[in-house]
Amino acid sequence: MANKRDLKKQIRYICGEVAFECIMTREFVEGVDPKVLNDLVIKIADLQQHSLKNATFSFDKAPRDFESKHDYHKAASAYFHNAYKVFYAEFNKQLQAIVTELNEAIPAAQREINKKIAQA
Questions:
Q1: CB atoms within 10 A of CB 51
Q2: Alpha carbons 12 and 90: distance in angstroms, whole number
Q3: How many CA atoms lie within 13 A of 117 on its CB side?
Q4: N or C, which end of the chain has less CB nearby within 10 Å?
Q5: Model pTM?
Q6: HSE of 22 in the Cβ direction (CA atoms, 13 Å)?
Q7: Residue 11, exposed/middle/buried by CB under 10 A (0-12, 13-18, 19+)?
Q8: How confident is the model over 65-104, as pLDDT tens digits?
Q9: CA 110, CA 26: separation in Å to the nearest integer?
């Protein structure tokens, strides 16, 4: 990720697209429970808000805590790499749970139609 602004844009885009899919499914697929899809949209909004709030990390060490600036930069880089790795894993885990719920809300007949369309 180039910077935090791009990360936040990506979070907004992903959450917006999944929410859009929920809304389109609710409006155009027959046999789905609209309450389930409305709850999913709320979960997506919560995920987006939580992720945007927690997308900022700060390294709690100072350069004077290390023998050289090189060691400081190496430790800071490792810290941020690990922090964003955990952040992405948690975001993807929650997003996958939401997508799974969305797929379960779609009737089986519609899922089969979607699979045929995707294979074509």
A1: 22
A2: 16
A3: 6
A4: C
A5: 0.86
A6: 26
A7: buried
A8: 999 999 999 999 999 999 999 999 999 999 999 999 999 9
A9: 13
